[in-house]
């Protein structure tokens, strides 16, 4: 390689690095500048992720994750010295939640989104807000009690979730003997299970208990199986949005270590919740309590 060519390549490399740095710096402040200028923040929420983020009987957004997200707004308002902060609620699905964060339609999304390395290459995640295991829900009359029992049966799973990927991989190991049925969201998945169009529903255990709470006869349905995976939920923001993530992580840490997050957990997992007033009666796991003691943004 000639000296001239080497110098040209070095110059090109330096220019690209400067552009990347400038882009990252722009991304860091872009969201906070927009929020400050408009006094408005766009919050992404789920429509049927009980008890994390969902519509109650009056079509109001409620839930554990949603309540945590609302508590973050005071920290954002204080940081930006805003007298008030308008909230625009944006419903999201498993299919569009990441694109809507990436394109700026949503500033923060807190629902039931698993933080993994693949997604972390597309968006930024806050400190984790929950820990789950992926399991099965089935009618108590079936013989399904664990994942190997699914051979020869129909299983519904919500599209574009980590559970779909896990189930498809597991089905390949079983020789494709599971009939996988897709639904657009968790509410539709459970409706298909109730209607008999599937014999089991695979999803995060907390979400399964949430769907069970909406059933006509909750006692008919049981959550079974050794967890196929353990996963952490986090709130999503745009990649490179360091300033906003710093505010969010700092406030989540305060909520968790002060005991306020545990009170919010108790409200949604150990008290009657809308729309039917059913109590999930689900004490916090040791993994969640450890997260509260030592908040982290690392995926499981």
- The residue-averaged pLDDT reads 91
Secondary structure: helix percent: 40-55%
**Parts with pLDDT < 50 across at least 5 consecutive residues:** 8-28
The assigned structural class equals alpha/beta
Query: Helix and strand succession?
Result: HEEEEHEHEHEEHEHEHEEHHEEH
Using the alpha-carbon principal axes, give the shape: globular
Rg calc? 21 Å
DSSP summary: helix tally:
10
N-to-C terminal Cα separation, in Å? 46 Å
Percent of residues in beta strands: 15-25%
Describe the largest sheet. 6 strands, mixed
Give a count of the beta strands, DSSP E runs of length 2 or more: 14
Q: In terms of topology, how is this protein built?
A:
Blueprint (H helix, E strand, L loop, with lengths): L2 H36 L1 E6 L2 E2 L3 E3 L5 E2 L1 H17 L5 E6 L5 H6 L5 E2 L7 H4 L2 E17 L14 E5 L3 H12 L5 E5 L2 H9 L5 E5 H8 L8 E4 L5 E9 L3 H17 L1 H10 L2 E2 L4 E2 L6 H8 L7
Parallel strand pairs: 1-5, 1-6, 8-9, 8-10
Antiparallel strand pairs: 2-3, 3-4, 7-10, 7-11, 7-12, 13-14
Helix pairs in contact: 2-8
């Amino acid at each position: 390689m000639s000296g001239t060519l080497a110098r040209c390549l070095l110059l090109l490399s330096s220019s690209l690095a400067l552009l990347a740095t400038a882009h990252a710096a722009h991304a860091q402040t872009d969201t906070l500048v927009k929020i400050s200028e408009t006094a408005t923040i766009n919050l992404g929420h789920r429509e049927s992720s009980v008890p994390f983020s969902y519509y109650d009987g009056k079509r109001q957004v409620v839930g554990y994750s949603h309540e945590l997200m609302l508590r973050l707004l005071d920290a954002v308002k204080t940081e930006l010295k805003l007298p008030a902060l308008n909230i625009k609620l944006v419903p999201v699905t498993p299919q569009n939640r990441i694109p809507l964060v990436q394109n700026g339609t949503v500033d923060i999304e807190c629902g039931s989104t698993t933080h993994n390395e693949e997604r972390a290459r597309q968006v930024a995640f806050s400190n984790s807000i929950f820990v789950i295991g992926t399991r099965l829900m089935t009618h108590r009359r079936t013989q399904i009690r664990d994942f190997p029992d699914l051979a020869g049966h129909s299983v519904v799973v919500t599209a574009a979730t980590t559970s779909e990927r896990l189930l498809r991989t597991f089905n390949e190991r079983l020789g494709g003997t599971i009939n996988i049925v897709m639904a657009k969201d968790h509410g539709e998945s459970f409706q298909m299970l109730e209607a008999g169009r599937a014999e089991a529903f695979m999803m995060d255990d907390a979400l399964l208990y949430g769907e069970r709470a909406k059933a006509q006869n909750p006692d008919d349905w049981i959550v079974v199986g050794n967890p196929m995976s353990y996963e952490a939920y986090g709130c999503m923001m745009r990649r490179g949005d360091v300033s906003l993530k710093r505010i969010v992580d700092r406030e989540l840490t305060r909520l968790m270590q002060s005991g306020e997050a545990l009170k919010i957990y108790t409200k949604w997992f150990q008290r009657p919740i809308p729309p039917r007033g059913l109590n999930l009666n689900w004490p916090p796991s040791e993994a969640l309590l450890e997260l509260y003691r030592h908040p982290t943004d690392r995926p499981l």
